[in-house]
């Protein structure tokens, strides 16, 4: 592994066998033939580690054990498969376990060096007792619960900037006063029956850079400042980009980079450990999506390397 002038690294589940076999979403985040380009670009920037599996007992802290047992054994209905977005196979369970394991590993990194990165994750449609929207395990809620239960954080922010509302996350943390769930999303998009986050910023179709960034500044920033988190999760969805198959907003690549710079810059300046997960992205142009993903990594490294003062 090459030497890097910084202590940061990222985790990926995309090199595991489950990602090269078995079912995929009808519109998966990136066609399999392009995944190598994303991983190569990431590996030029920082060490890239394979995702570890999440211990099942951590999943059971937030998900109904009976629900998990049925999915582990493949005892699911066609309706449940349709709600998830693809048919059950053992690979579906392995993907969920490794993606959530990557977020937990990134959480441990953030506690140690300030920044943790998962090239996947952000499965925010998973509920405590059922799967939805390509989401079987809610990786961010699992890691947030681990932090709070272990006393390693007292106030956890979940900043969800995916184009879709984080309905599962909002539901699972509705009664948790030590968390702040913030979702900035397209109002008319999936899920069509939404939950109530602590702060929902619902945007009209076609919202572009200026209005989106103004919403972050005027509506999100004051609420986050009042909450005073001591740990943050950032769902850096690239599905806000114009041209996304499942998105209804119209941000430019420059707008997405400005969004990322605001989030990572805030965390680095505030000294708040942060985990970034990539969440959704289904752009019609795979190269646009890859560039956005790598831009998110560049933004994170720029902010946190400057904070660490290592170069």
Description:
With about 300 residues, this protein is an alpha/beta fold. The protein has one domain (about 10-310): Arginase, Chain A, CATH 3.40.800.20. It is about 45% helix and about 10% strand. It has 10 helices and 8 strands. It has an 8-stranded parallel beta sheet, sandwiched between helices. It is globular. It comes from Deinococcus koreensis. Belongs to the histone deacetylase family. Pfam families: Hist_deacetyl.
Q: Give Rg in angstroms.
A: 18 Å
Q: What is the fourth-level CATH superfamily?
A: Histone deacetylase domain
Please state roughly what percent of the residues sit in beta strands, choosing from under 5%, 5-15%, 15-25%, 25-35%, 35-45% or over 45%: 5-15%
Spans of at least 5 consecutive residues with low confidence: none
Largest sheet: 8 strands, parallel
Provide the CATH architecture. Answer: 3-Layer(aba) Sandwich
CATH class: Alpha Beta
Structural class: alpha/beta
CATH topology (fold) name: Arginase, Chain A
Topology:
Elements: E1 10-12, H1 32-43, E2 48-50, H2 56-59, H3 65-73, H4 78-84, H5 90-113, E3 115-118, H6 139-149, E4 156-160, H7 167-172, E5 179-186, E6 199-203, H8 209-227, E7 231-235, H9 253-270, E8 274-277, H10 286-308
Parallel strand pairs: 1-2, 1-3, 3-8, 4-5, 4-7, 5-6, 7-8
Task: Provide a quick synopsis of the model.
With 311 residues, this protein is of the alpha/beta class. 43% of the residues lie in helices and 12% in strands. The protein has a single domain, classed as Histone deacetylase domain (Arginase, Chain A, 3-Layer(aba) Sandwich).
């Amino acid at each position: 592994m090459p030497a890097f002038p910084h202590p940061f690294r990222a985790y990926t589940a995309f090199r595991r066998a489950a990602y090269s076999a078995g079912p995929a979403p009808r519109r998966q985040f990136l066609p399999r033939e392009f995944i190598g380009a994303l991983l190569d670009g990431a590996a030029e920037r920082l060490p890239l580690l394979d995702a570890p599996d999440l211990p099942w007992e951590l999943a059971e802290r937030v998900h109904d054990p009976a629900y998990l047992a049925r999915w582990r054994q493949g005892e699911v209905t066609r309706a449940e498969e349709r709600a998830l977005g693809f048919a059950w196979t053992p690979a579906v369970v392995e993907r969920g376990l490794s993606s959530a394991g990557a977020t937990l590993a990134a959480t441990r990194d953030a506690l140690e060096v300030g920044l943790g990165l998962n090239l996947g994750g952000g499965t925010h449609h998973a509920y405590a007792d059922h799967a939805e929207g390509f989401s079987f395990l809610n990786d961010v809620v699992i890691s947030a619960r681990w932090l709070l239960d272990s006393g390693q954080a007292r106030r956890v922010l979940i900043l969800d900037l995916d184009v879709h509302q984080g309905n599962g996350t909002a539901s699972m943390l509705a009664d948790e006063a030590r968390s702040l769930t913030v979702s900035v999303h397209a109002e008319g998009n999936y899920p069509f029956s939404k939950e109530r986050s602590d702060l929902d910023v619902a945007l009209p179709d076609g919202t572009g850079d200026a209005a989106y960034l103004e919403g972050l500044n005027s509506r999100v920033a004051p609420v986050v400042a009042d909450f005073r988190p001591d740990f943050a999760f950032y769902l850096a969805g690239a599905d806000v980009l114009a041209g996304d198959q499942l998105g209804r907003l119209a941000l430019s690549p420059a707008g997405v980079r400005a969004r990322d710079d605001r989030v990572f810059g805030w965390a680095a300046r505030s000294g708040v450990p942060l985990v970034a997960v990539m969440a959704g992205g289904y752009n019609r142009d795979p190269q646009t999506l890859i560039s956005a993903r790598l831009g998110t990594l560049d933004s994170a490294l720029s902010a946190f390397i400057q904070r660490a003062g290592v170069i």
